[in-house]
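[job 0412] stage=complex_fold ligand=PPS status=START
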Amino acid sequence: MSLEKKKNAQLNEEFVQEVEVIEINGVLMIKTISDNWDPIWNFQAKPNDLLIASYVKAGTTWMQEIVDMIQNDGDEKKCQRASTYDKHPFIEWKPDLPLLPGLDLAMKMPSPRTLKTHLPVQLLPPSFWKQNTKIIYVARNAKDSVVSYYHFSRMLRIYPRPGTLEDFIKKFMNGRVLWGSWYDHVKGWWDKKDKHPILYLFYEDMKENPKREIQKILKFLEKDLSEEILNKIIYHTSFDIMKENPKVNYTTIPRAVMDHSISPFMRKGMTGDWKNHFTVAQNEKFDEDYKKKMIGTSLIFRTEI
Ligand code: PPS
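[job 0412] stage=complex_fold status=DONE, emitting C-alpha coordinates
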Protein backbone atom coordinates (compact mmCIF):
# COMPACT_ATOMS: atom_id res chain seq x y z
CA MET A 1 0.00 0.00 0.00
CA SER A 2 1.41 3.43 -0.89
CA LEU A 3 2.25 5.86 1.91
CA GLU A 4 -0.53 8.13 0.73
CA LYS A 5 -3.13 5.32 0.81
CA LYS A 6 -1.90 4.25 4.23
CA LYS A 7 -2.27 7.77 5.58
CA ASN A 8 -5.78 8.00 4.15
CA ALA A 9 -6.76 4.65 5.61
CA GLN A 10 -5.36 5.74 8.98
CA LEU A 11 -7.52 8.82 8.94
CA ASN A 12 -10.56 6.86 7.89
CA GLU A 13 -14.01 8.26 8.63
CA GLU A 14 -13.38 8.66 12.38
CA PHE A 15 -13.49 12.47 12.43
CA VAL A 16 -14.81 15.41 11.97
CA GLN A 17 -16.03 17.84 14.55
CA GLU A 18 -16.73 21.54 14.27
CA VAL A 19 -13.45 23.46 14.19
CA GLU A 20 -12.38 25.70 17.01
CA VAL A 21 -11.13 29.08 15.88
CA ILE A 22 -8.70 31.28 17.85
CA GLU A 23 -7.17 34.63 16.91
CA ILE A 24 -3.47 35.33 16.59
CA ASN A 25 -2.94 39.10 16.77
CA GLY A 26 -6.48 39.65 15.52
CA VAL A 27 -6.22 37.11 12.66
CA LEU A 28 -8.52 34.09 12.83
CA MET A 29 -6.80 30.71 12.71
CA ILE A 30 -7.90 27.19 13.45
CA LYS A 31 -7.09 26.28 17.04
CA THR A 32 -4.40 23.73 16.19
CA ILE A 33 -2.44 26.47 14.43
CA SER A 34 -2.89 28.97 17.28
CA ASP A 35 -1.92 26.29 19.81
CA ASN A 36 1.31 25.64 17.92
CA TRP A 37 2.09 29.24 17.16
CA ASP A 38 5.54 29.34 18.84
CA PRO A 39 7.18 26.73 16.59
CA ILE A 40 5.51 28.30 13.55
CA TRP A 41 6.71 31.81 14.44
CA ASN A 42 10.20 30.44 15.15
CA PHE A 43 10.39 28.55 11.86
CA GLN A 44 13.90 28.84 10.41
CA ALA A 45 13.86 29.94 6.80
CA LYS A 46 17.00 29.57 4.68
CA PRO A 47 18.38 31.91 2.02
CA ASN A 48 17.88 29.28 -0.70
CA ASP A 49 14.25 28.53 0.21
CA LEU A 50 11.50 29.74 -2.09
CA LEU A 51 8.24 30.73 -0.46
CA ILE A 52 4.91 30.80 -2.33
CA ALA A 53 2.62 33.12 -0.40
CA SER A 54 -1.01 34.01 -1.04
CA TYR A 55 -4.35 34.68 0.54
CA VAL A 56 -6.62 31.61 0.58
CA LYS A 57 -7.90 30.56 -2.89
CA ALA A 58 -5.68 32.94 -4.87
CA GLY A 59 -4.24 30.25 -7.14
CA THR A 60 -1.54 28.92 -4.81
CA THR A 61 -1.73 25.33 -6.07
CA TRP A 62 -1.50 26.55 -9.64
CA MET A 63 1.62 28.57 -8.79
CA GLN A 64 3.08 25.63 -6.89
CA GLU A 65 2.79 23.38 -9.95
CA ILE A 66 4.21 26.05 -12.26
CA VAL A 67 7.20 26.51 -9.95
CA ASP A 68 7.70 22.76 -9.64
CA MET A 69 7.65 22.39 -13.43
CA ILE A 70 10.21 25.21 -13.72
CA GLN A 71 12.45 23.70 -11.07
CA ASN A 72 12.26 20.33 -12.86
CA ASP A 73 12.94 21.80 -16.32
CA GLY A 74 9.47 20.89 -17.58
CA ASP A 75 9.71 17.19 -16.68
CA GLU A 76 6.13 16.35 -15.72
CA LYS A 77 7.10 12.83 -14.57
CA LYS A 78 9.34 14.33 -11.88
CA CYS A 79 6.45 16.57 -10.86
CA GLN A 80 4.36 13.44 -10.28
CA ARG A 81 6.76 12.29 -7.52
CA ALA A 82 4.39 13.43 -4.75
CA SER A 83 1.26 15.45 -4.02
CA THR A 84 1.41 19.24 -3.92
CA TYR A 85 1.18 19.31 -0.12
CA ASP A 86 4.10 16.87 0.23
CA LYS A 87 6.27 18.66 -2.31
CA HIS A 88 5.74 22.12 -0.81
CA PRO A 89 5.00 22.06 2.91
CA PHE A 90 2.42 24.51 4.22
CA ILE A 91 4.53 26.09 6.96
CA GLU A 92 1.76 27.15 9.36
CA TRP A 93 -0.17 23.89 9.04
CA LYS A 94 0.04 21.96 12.27
CA PRO A 95 -3.27 20.20 12.89
CA ASP A 96 -3.38 16.85 14.66
CA LEU A 97 -3.95 15.03 11.42
CA PRO A 98 -1.78 12.35 9.91
CA LEU A 99 -2.32 14.03 6.56
CA LEU A 100 -0.89 17.34 5.39
CA PRO A 101 2.15 17.37 7.66
CA GLY A 102 3.02 21.05 6.99
CA LEU A 103 5.44 22.51 9.53
CA ASP A 104 6.96 19.18 10.57
CA LEU A 105 7.68 18.27 6.98
CA ALA A 106 9.12 21.71 6.24
CA MET A 107 11.55 21.37 9.14
CA LYS A 108 12.92 18.03 8.05
CA MET A 109 12.94 18.66 4.31
CA PRO A 110 16.39 18.93 2.71
CA SER A 111 17.30 22.14 0.87
CA PRO A 112 16.50 23.64 -1.50
CA ARG A 113 12.92 23.82 -0.22
CA THR A 114 9.85 25.36 -1.80
CA LEU A 115 7.32 26.26 0.87
CA LYS A 116 3.74 27.50 0.99
CA THR A 117 2.03 29.98 3.29
CA HIS A 118 -1.24 31.88 3.57
CA LEU A 119 0.04 34.03 6.43
CA PRO A 120 -0.52 37.78 6.30
CA VAL A 121 2.74 39.66 6.03
CA GLN A 122 2.85 40.67 9.71
CA LEU A 123 2.59 37.03 10.82
CA LEU A 124 5.29 35.63 8.55
CA PRO A 125 8.08 34.07 10.65
CA PRO A 126 10.79 36.76 10.92
CA SER A 127 13.55 34.43 9.69
CA PHE A 128 12.22 34.88 6.12
CA TRP A 129 13.05 38.61 6.28
CA LYS A 130 16.37 37.96 7.97
CA GLN A 131 17.45 35.37 5.41
CA ASN A 132 16.23 37.48 2.49
CA THR A 133 14.37 34.43 1.15
CA LYS A 134 12.74 34.87 -2.27
CA ILE A 135 8.96 35.01 -2.17
CA ILE A 136 6.36 34.71 -4.93
CA TYR A 137 3.06 36.26 -3.86
CA VAL A 138 -0.13 35.47 -5.82
CA ALA A 139 -3.11 37.77 -5.49
CA ARG A 140 -6.64 37.28 -6.82
CA ASN A 141 -9.48 39.77 -6.98
CA ALA A 142 -11.71 39.90 -3.89
CA LYS A 143 -14.97 38.85 -5.56
CA ASP A 144 -13.63 35.67 -7.13
CA SER A 145 -11.66 34.99 -3.94
CA VAL A 146 -14.73 35.17 -1.73
CA VAL A 147 -16.77 32.91 -4.03
CA SER A 148 -13.97 30.35 -4.27
CA TYR A 149 -13.39 30.52 -0.50
CA TYR A 150 -17.11 30.02 0.16
CA HIS A 151 -17.27 26.84 -1.93
CA PHE A 152 -14.00 25.62 -0.42
CA SER A 153 -15.40 26.14 3.09
CA ARG A 154 -18.44 24.06 2.13
CA MET A 155 -16.33 21.12 0.99
CA LEU A 156 -13.47 21.33 3.52
CA ARG A 157 -14.98 19.90 6.65
CA ILE A 158 -12.17 20.99 8.93
CA TYR A 159 -12.96 24.69 8.31
CA PRO A 160 -15.80 26.51 10.06
CA ARG A 161 -19.17 26.12 8.33
CA PRO A 162 -19.59 29.12 6.00
CA GLY A 163 -23.37 29.56 6.31
CA THR A 164 -25.02 31.06 3.24
CA LEU A 165 -23.05 32.98 0.64
CA GLU A 166 -24.62 36.15 2.06
CA ASP A 167 -23.29 35.23 5.54
CA PHE A 168 -19.88 34.38 4.15
CA ILE A 169 -19.55 37.59 2.12
CA LYS A 170 -20.25 39.56 5.32
CA LYS A 171 -17.62 37.61 7.25
CA PHE A 172 -15.14 38.10 4.41
CA MET A 173 -15.78 41.86 4.29
CA ASN A 174 -15.23 42.03 8.05
CA GLY A 175 -12.11 39.89 7.92
CA ARG A 176 -13.80 37.29 10.14
CA VAL A 177 -12.60 34.31 8.13
CA LEU A 178 -9.56 32.07 8.56
CA TRP A 179 -6.29 33.83 7.70
CA GLY A 180 -8.00 37.16 8.28
CA SER A 181 -8.82 40.11 6.09
CA TRP A 182 -8.25 39.73 2.33
CA TYR A 183 -7.89 43.53 2.13
CA ASP A 184 -5.11 43.71 4.72
CA HIS A 185 -3.42 40.65 3.25
CA VAL A 186 -3.09 41.87 -0.34
CA LYS A 187 -2.17 45.43 0.76
CA GLY A 188 0.31 44.25 3.38
CA TRP A 189 2.23 42.11 0.92
CA TRP A 190 2.01 44.81 -1.76
CA ASP A 191 3.66 47.32 0.56
CA LYS A 192 6.38 44.85 1.46
CA LYS A 193 7.35 44.02 -2.10
CA ASP A 194 9.68 47.02 -2.55
CA LYS A 195 11.69 46.16 0.57
CA HIS A 196 12.27 42.45 -0.02
CA PRO A 197 12.72 40.07 -3.00
CA ILE A 198 9.01 39.51 -3.62
CA LEU A 199 7.51 38.80 -7.03
CA TYR A 200 3.90 39.96 -6.76
CA LEU A 201 1.69 38.32 -9.39
CA PHE A 202 -2.02 38.33 -10.15
CA TYR A 203 -4.27 35.35 -10.89
CA GLU A 204 -6.06 37.38 -13.56
CA ASP A 205 -2.77 38.08 -15.39
CA MET A 206 -1.90 34.39 -15.25
CA LYS A 207 -5.26 33.53 -16.79
CA GLU A 208 -4.89 36.19 -19.44
CA ASN A 209 -1.33 35.40 -20.49
CA PRO A 210 0.34 32.50 -18.69
CA LYS A 211 3.43 32.70 -20.89
CA ARG A 212 4.14 36.30 -19.95
CA GLU A 213 3.67 35.57 -16.23
CA ILE A 214 5.80 32.39 -16.31
CA GLN A 215 8.55 34.42 -17.97
CA LYS A 216 8.45 36.80 -14.99
CA ILE A 217 8.87 33.81 -12.67
CA LEU A 218 11.79 32.49 -14.74
CA LYS A 219 13.54 35.84 -14.48
CA PHE A 220 12.89 36.02 -10.75
CA LEU A 221 14.27 32.51 -10.25
CA GLU A 222 17.16 33.20 -12.63
CA LYS A 223 16.21 30.28 -14.85
CA ASP A 224 16.31 30.06 -18.60
CA LEU A 225 14.09 27.53 -20.35
CA SER A 226 13.43 26.91 -24.03
CA GLU A 227 10.21 27.95 -25.74
CA GLU A 228 9.32 24.26 -26.03
CA ILE A 229 9.61 23.68 -22.29
CA LEU A 230 7.72 26.88 -21.57
CA ASN A 231 4.83 25.64 -23.73
CA LYS A 232 4.93 22.30 -21.94
CA ILE A 233 4.66 24.06 -18.58
CA ILE A 234 1.68 26.09 -19.79
CA TYR A 235 -0.07 22.94 -20.97
CA HIS A 236 0.69 20.84 -17.88
CA THR A 237 -0.48 23.61 -15.53
CA SER A 238 -3.64 24.54 -17.43
CA PHE A 239 -6.83 24.20 -15.41
CA ASP A 240 -8.21 21.27 -17.44
CA ILE A 241 -5.04 19.23 -17.05
CA MET A 242 -4.55 20.05 -13.36
CA LYS A 243 -8.19 19.21 -12.63
CA GLU A 244 -7.54 15.62 -13.77
CA ASN A 245 -4.16 15.31 -12.02
CA PRO A 246 -4.59 13.53 -8.64
CA LYS A 247 -1.21 14.83 -7.44
CA VAL A 248 -2.48 18.40 -7.51
CA ASN A 249 -6.29 18.25 -7.35
CA TYR A 250 -6.51 17.16 -3.69
CA THR A 251 -8.71 14.14 -4.51
CA THR A 252 -6.28 11.95 -2.54
CA ILE A 253 -7.49 13.58 0.69
CA PRO A 254 -10.20 11.47 2.36
CA ARG A 255 -13.78 12.49 1.84
CA ALA A 256 -14.18 13.00 5.59
CA VAL A 257 -11.87 16.00 5.21
CA MET A 258 -12.51 17.26 1.68
CA ASP A 259 -15.78 16.33 0.05
CA HIS A 260 -15.35 17.00 -3.65
CA SER A 261 -18.95 15.92 -4.28
CA ILE A 262 -20.03 19.12 -2.48
CA SER A 263 -17.63 21.25 -4.51
CA PRO A 264 -14.41 20.12 -6.20
CA PHE A 265 -11.10 21.70 -5.16
CA MET A 266 -10.48 22.42 -8.86
CA ARG A 267 -13.86 24.09 -9.16
CA LYS A 268 -14.03 26.52 -12.11
CA GLY A 269 -10.60 28.11 -12.39
CA MET A 270 -11.85 31.27 -14.04
CA THR A 271 -12.03 35.01 -13.56
CA GLY A 272 -15.47 36.58 -13.22
CA ASP A 273 -17.35 33.61 -11.76
CA TRP A 274 -18.51 35.97 -8.99
CA LYS A 275 -21.06 37.30 -11.52
CA ASN A 276 -22.83 33.93 -11.31
CA HIS A 277 -23.09 34.28 -7.52
CA PHE A 278 -23.42 37.91 -6.41
CA THR A 279 -26.84 39.55 -6.43
CA VAL A 280 -27.01 43.17 -7.63
CA ALA A 281 -27.50 44.31 -4.02
CA GLN A 282 -24.55 42.26 -2.74
CA ASN A 283 -22.38 43.65 -5.52
CA GLU A 284 -23.26 47.27 -4.75
CA LYS A 285 -22.61 46.80 -1.05
CA PHE A 286 -19.36 44.99 -1.71
CA ASP A 287 -18.11 47.73 -4.10
CA GLU A 288 -18.98 50.49 -1.65
CA ASP A 289 -17.14 48.76 1.19
CA TYR A 290 -14.22 47.84 -1.11
CA LYS A 291 -13.60 51.47 -2.03
CA LYS A 292 -13.29 52.41 1.64
CA LYS A 293 -10.98 49.51 2.50
CA MET A 294 -8.71 49.98 -0.54
CA ILE A 295 -8.45 53.78 -0.39
CA GLY A 296 -4.93 55.12 -0.75
CA THR A 297 -3.35 51.98 -2.21
CA SER A 298 -1.84 51.78 -5.69
CA LEU A 299 -2.91 48.14 -5.84
CA ILE A 300 -5.48 47.54 -8.58
CA PHE A 301 -7.36 44.33 -9.29
CA ARG A 302 -9.35 43.23 -12.31
CA THR A 303 -12.61 41.40 -11.65
CA GLU A 304 -12.96 40.39 -15.28
CA ILE A 305 -10.57 39.85 -18.17
S1 PPS B 1 -5.82 27.02 -1.37
O1 PPS B 1 -6.64 25.93 -0.80
O2 PPS B 1 -6.08 28.29 -0.68
O3 PPS B 1 -4.39 26.71 -1.42
O4 PPS B 1 -6.38 27.18 -2.85
P1 PPS B 1 -5.61 27.85 -4.06
O5 PPS B 1 -4.81 26.82 -4.74
O6 PPS B 1 -4.95 29.11 -3.64
O7 PPS B 1 -6.80 28.30 -5.00
C1 PPS B 1 -7.72 27.40 -5.58
C2 PPS B 1 -8.38 28.13 -6.72
O8 PPS B 1 -7.46 28.18 -7.84
C3 PPS B 1 -8.05 27.52 -8.94
N1 PPS B 1 -7.03 26.85 -9.76
C4 PPS B 1 -6.73 27.22 -11.01
N2 PPS B 1 -7.21 28.21 -11.78
C5 PPS B 1 -6.71 28.31 -13.04
N3 PPS B 1 -5.78 27.46 -13.56
C6 PPS B 1 -5.27 26.45 -12.81
N4 PPS B 1 -4.37 25.64 -13.33
C7 PPS B 1 -5.76 26.31 -11.47
N5 PPS B 1 -5.48 25.44 -10.47
C8 PPS B 1 -6.27 25.79 -9.44
C9 PPS B 1 -9.02 26.53 -8.30
O9 PPS B 1 -9.92 26.02 -9.23
C10 PPS B 1 -9.63 27.41 -7.24
O10 PPS B 1 -10.45 28.44 -7.78
P2 PPS B 1 -12.03 28.30 -8.05
O11 PPS B 1 -12.49 29.67 -8.43
O12 PPS B 1 -12.67 27.83 -6.79
O13 PPS B 1 -12.18 27.33 -9.18
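The pocket of PPS is lined by residues 54, 56-62, 144, 148, 151, 237-239, 242, 266-269, 273 (CB under 6 Å).
[job 0412] exit 0
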